[in-house]
Amino acid sequence: MKKTMHVTWLGEQRYVARNETGQQLIIDNSELKLGVGPMEALLAALATCTAYDVVEVMKKRKTPLWGYRVEIEGERAEEHPRRYTRIVVRHIASGTGVTQDSLSKAAHLSHEKYCSVAASLNSEIVVEAVLEQPSEATPA
Predict the structure, then answer these.
(1) What pTM, to 2 d.p., does this model score?
(2) Which DSSP string corresponds to 97-134?
(3) Tens digit of pLDDT for each residue in 30-50?
(4) Which residues, at least 6 apart from 136, have a Cβ–Cβ distance to it below 8 Å?
C-alpha cells in the first residue's frame, strides 16, 4: 500500500503538504511560523499514531477513555543531520477502570506492534531522491 504526499513551496521556509484526497498540513520553518516545523510534525505523527492505537485498545478492552492526551518530547543530536536520538512519549488518561497497568499495556502494544510511525522510526528506510524537470504546463 502506497501513501502519497505532494509538498509545494510557498516561499521563505513554508510549505503545504497535501495528500491524495486534498487534506493539507502546513510545515513552516520560517521566522513567522504559521505551521509546525518538520521535526515537530514527525513528533506529532508519532504521538497521534500511538494515540489512535491506545484509544482503540482501551475501547476493545471495555475500558473506554474519558480524557486522554499524549505529551511527546524529542532530543536531537547536535551535529547534522540533527536526528532524534531519544523520544519520550507520555500517555495521560482517565476513565472508569483505567489503571496505570491497563494504560501501560495498551501503550506498549501500540509502540511494539501497531504504530506504523514508531516502526518506521525504528527501522532502516530506503529513501530515494529522484530529480525531475517540471513540464511547461505544470508550475513548480
Answers:
(1) 0.88
(2) T--HHHHHHHHHHIIIII-HHHHHHTS---------PP
(3) 988 889 999 999 999 999 999
(4) none
